[in-house]
Amino acid sequence: MITFEGAFHGRTLATLAAGGQKKYLEGFGPVAAGFDQVPLGDIDAVQAMIGPETAAILIEPIQGEGGVRVVPTPFLRALRDLCDQRDLLLVFDEVQTGIGRTGAFFAYERTGVVPDVMGIAKAIGGGFPLGACLATAKAGKGMTAGTHGSTFGANPLAMAAGNAVLDLVLAPGFLEQVRRSAILFRQRLAEIRDRYPTVVADIRG
Hints:
The chain is an alpha/beta fold. The protein is 33% helix and 13% strand.
């Protein structure tokens, strides 16, 4: 699986290896094999890294731990095209960007680039531990009943929390308000940057 420098995908042994950041890997080992990291935004490096055992490309549409770096839409489109050409899965980690946090229900919707597999968590539970793995029918065809299980999977309290969150986020006007708030924040932060250019270098997110 090809991943990107600056990424953060979680704190299990495999997801720490996928992220590859030394500050998180320290004290854990051996590092799980199977992840090849390339610089974010370098499509030539991605192409060069693809080998006979490459199965997927994993990316956050916006890197959180990597410094709130928004991945340019043309790069995501190039990854989609590359995956289609080479029969690879495109996997989006929307744990930090999903469920309305970018003004769209999922961040990928703002780009028009649809992943084959997507991981979500955090916001879907509204503070209650909850996560999900979403996939297209083609990408998920191997996940038949009994191939994956979880001690706490689909428990009634988590499902109730998730349903309550969805009722709020999908209510008319909710995401529009998120977008309006984002514009206001960006305008006000830009004013601060203009007043203190030696203190604030950039506004992004």
